[in-house]
């Protein structure tokens, strides 16, 4: 649908001829400056135009797309292209300006699971570290749509991508965090930690850690939903990233609740179940240390990080040094 872009080959040749390292950089003539500015401007205009074209497709009713033999794979390809464009914060914000954000959010309800998942992934790219687009998505009820996919979608990949988008949407976004709490998002985190999907578990643990860091009072909610017990269980996961994320979450929770008199025995000094779990991991990590000569640098770094987290958690809970 898009026309040919600017002459990038010519631009490259011009750039190389003026800065090839073999001669001093010269001052640009007014003509060169004008040509370069026009080349850059034409690219910007083309991207915005392309956003408008993609928006038109996203706004087209499903039956019309099917009548024109547009397949789900075509839509996935279009969403892939859109994601590349909105990696630029300016283009991400422009998508809403040209009317593309609302129809994109509508695709979260598409009957095709791959399209739902890809749409959530694009939303995640749009809102990541982008307060303006976060606000736009919130105003368009995007959080509610993502929460529905996160908690109720029948496809695990779609649920996982929705959780990733939620994480990007509510980071450094107080209304988003509040909305997540009000919408019972913690129940969704509990469900995620109870699944067998390590990728889903990782994303849930990372978001939980962030929420606990942001507000100590969220520890009340975490304990109410029994997330500390689930994290204890995941400390023994076969997946190193899940183990590390579970330890981080527990450490954050323990720090927030250390002096709490109403927490019960679940995460305090007298919890023998947690003591035994940590002892078992300490033994396991000690065996890993003995095999360090046969491990990759990446595995060694992961083991070192886990060892430090275990030591910190043990010291914080039991007020005594670990055996590490």
TrEMBL record:
Keywords: Repeat. GO terms for cellular component: endoplasmic reticulum. Pfam families: Fes1 (PF08609). SMART domains: TOG (SM01349). The keyword Membrane does not apply. It comes from Arabidopsis suecica. This is Armadillo-type fold. One of its GO terms (molecular function) is adenyl-nucleotide exchange factor activity. It comes from the Eukaryota. InterPro entries: ARM-like (IPR011989), ARM-type_fold (IPR016024), Hsp70_NEF-Inhibitors (IPR050693), Nucleotide_exch_fac_Fes1 (IPR013918), TOG (IPR034085). Residues 46-291 form the TOG domain. PANTHER family: HSP70-BINDING PROTEIN 1 (PTHR19316:SF18), PROTEIN FOLDING REGULATOR (PTHR19316).
């Amino acid at each position: 649908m898009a026309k040919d872009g600017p002459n990038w080959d010519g631009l490259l040749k011009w750039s190389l001829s003026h800065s090839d390292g073999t001669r001093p950089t010269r001052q640009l003539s007014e003509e060169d400056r004008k040509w370069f500015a026009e080349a850059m401007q034409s690219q910007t205009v083309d991207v915005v135009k392309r956003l408008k074209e993609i928006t038109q497709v996203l706004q087209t009713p499903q039956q019309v797309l099917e009548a024109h033999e547009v397949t789900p794979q075509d839509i996935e390809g279009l969403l892939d292209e859109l994601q590349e464009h909105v990696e630029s914060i300016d283009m991400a914000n422009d998508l809403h300006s040209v009317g593309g954000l609302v129809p994109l959010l509508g695709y979260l309800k598409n009957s095709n699971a791959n399209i739902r998942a890809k749409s959530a992934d694009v939303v995640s790219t749009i809102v990541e570290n982008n307060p303006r687009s976060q606000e736009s998505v919130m105003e368009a009820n995007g959080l509610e749509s993502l929460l529905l996919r996160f908690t109720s979608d029948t496809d695990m990949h779609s649920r996982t991508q929705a959780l990733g988008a939620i994480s990007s949407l509510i980071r450094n976004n107080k209304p988003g965090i509040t909305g997540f709490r009000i919408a019972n998002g913690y129940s969704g985190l509990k469900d995620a930690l109870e699944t067998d999907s390590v990728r889903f578990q990782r994303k849930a643990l990372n978001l939980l850690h962030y929420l606990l860091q942001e507000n100590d009072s969220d520890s009340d909610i975490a304990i109410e939903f029994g997330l500390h017990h689930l994290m204890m269980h995941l400390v023994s996961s076969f997946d190193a990233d899940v183990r590390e994320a579970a330890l981080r979450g527990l450490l954050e929770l323990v720090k927030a609740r250390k002096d709490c008199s109403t927490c019960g025995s679940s995460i305090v000094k007298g919890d023998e179940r947690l003591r035994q779990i940590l002892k078992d991991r300490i033994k396991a990590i000690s065996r890993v240390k003995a095999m360090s000569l046969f491990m990759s640098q990446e595995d060694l770094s992961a083991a070192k990080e886990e060892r430090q987290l275990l030591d910190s958690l043990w010291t914080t809970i039991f007020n005594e040094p670990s055996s590490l």
